[in-house]
Amino acid sequence: MKTIFHLDMDAFFVSVERILDPSLQGKPVIVGGDPHGRGVVAACSYEARKFGIHSAMPIANAFRLCPKGIFLHGHHKEYVRYSNAVKNLLEEKFPIVQQASIDEFYCDFTGCQKIYGEPQEFAKKLQQEIMNKFSLPCSIGISSNKSVSKIATDLNKPMGITFVPHGKEKEFLAPLAIERIPGVGKKTFPILKARGFNTIGDLANASQDYLASILGKFGIDLWNRANGFGSDILSLEHERKSISKETTFEEDIVGKTEIEVHLFKLVEKVAQLLRNENLNASTIGIKLRYSDFSTITRAKTIKEPTNDDKIIYQTAVNLFRAVYTRRVGVRLIGIHLSKLEHVSEQEVLFEDEELIRKRMLNAVTKIRDKYGSKIIHIGIVGNK
Ligand SMILES: [Mg+2]
């Protein structure tokens, strides 16, 4: 039996914003941009949640619920910086740490008892240390596997610690609502509800075949999770699976060139994120939503993985030009990078034009890190 910690920062973006501007303390804070725009809420404080605001909600709705709230665009670079600081601290304590998202980590505590004592006691100290060092609140769930620990963390926030003893996983889950299981959302929730499933216990008591018959493979996964099973294997490295960014326009756009300029700005952002994390991407995808809400996605996998603005933009814009055939207004454009891998050391060994270009890109990254992303743009728009 293993002991797996799941640590999740509480309202992470908002907590970082409060470090940057302490006057935000105790106020309803919403990160996600212009309250009159058409974006969505990226994060909100617990004070904002009291008004019924939650993440992924259209920001205009959030504004309607809480017009006195403080709406912020957010400081992504700072979020990455604090996330890395927390990760470094966790890596000092645990033999294996797996980063699941910018503010979420799995840590393997197995065998650590001899050094640190009981897991709950250690969790308390760890939570306090993160608070003291970074002024960041977090919650921790502890059980024998990742699935149960994640559900446990979520149950008791902010600054909660939830411990599920070995062998009690199923019992712990049974009374909880089905939507506590990650993946039971807009699509699956109504299907299960209509068939009389209310608690995770209901799912655990159903037959695996029945759940598979209504939900396919996910039904089997659900049955396993409901019965307290889950993976206890942590991947050593944080494997970010994809990076995406999208822009919802204030007003629908019809002009091709204008859309391409927005696409270019998105490419700059995602390429910057790749370089910050020393990653290359192989698959480049775009998303296009028309004013009638019909949505198109296209992707292309390129031979040489890259984090070069120029290559990413050219691939993306070709995809866009191939699909943008309707003369209908566009509401949203997005870019999605996947098949990510770490930049290999060899890549910096050969001295040629490519290398010079890469050096230039690295210099750009450094300048942007210092002075912000607006200061420098690489001249690509206009090239064919
Ligand atoms: Mg969180």
- Under CATH at level 1, the class of the largest domain stands as Alpha Beta
CATH architecture assignment name of the largest domain: 2-Layer Sandwich
> How many domains, in number, for the residues?
3
CATH 4th-level superfamily of the largest domain: Reverse transcriptase/Diguanylate cyclase domain
The set of bound ligands, ions and cofactors reads: magnesium ion
Describe this structure in words.
This protein is of the alpha+beta class. It has three domains: 1-166, Reverse transcriptase/Diguanylate cyclase domain (Alpha-Beta Plaits); 170-226, DNA polymerase, domain 1 (Orthogonal Bundle), CATH 1.10.150.20; 242-371, Dna Ligase, domain 1 (2-Layer Sandwich), CATH 3.30.1490.100. It contains 15 helices and twelve strands. It has a five-stranded mixed sheet. Strands 9-12-10-11 form a four-stranded antiparallel sheet, with helices on one face. A hairpin with a 4-residue loop joins strand 10 (279-290) and strand 11. The termini are far apart. Mean pLDDT is 89; it is low at 345-351. The structure holds magnesium ion (MG). The site of magnesium ion has 4 residues, from strand 1. Magnesium ion is lined by residues 8-9, 12, 103.
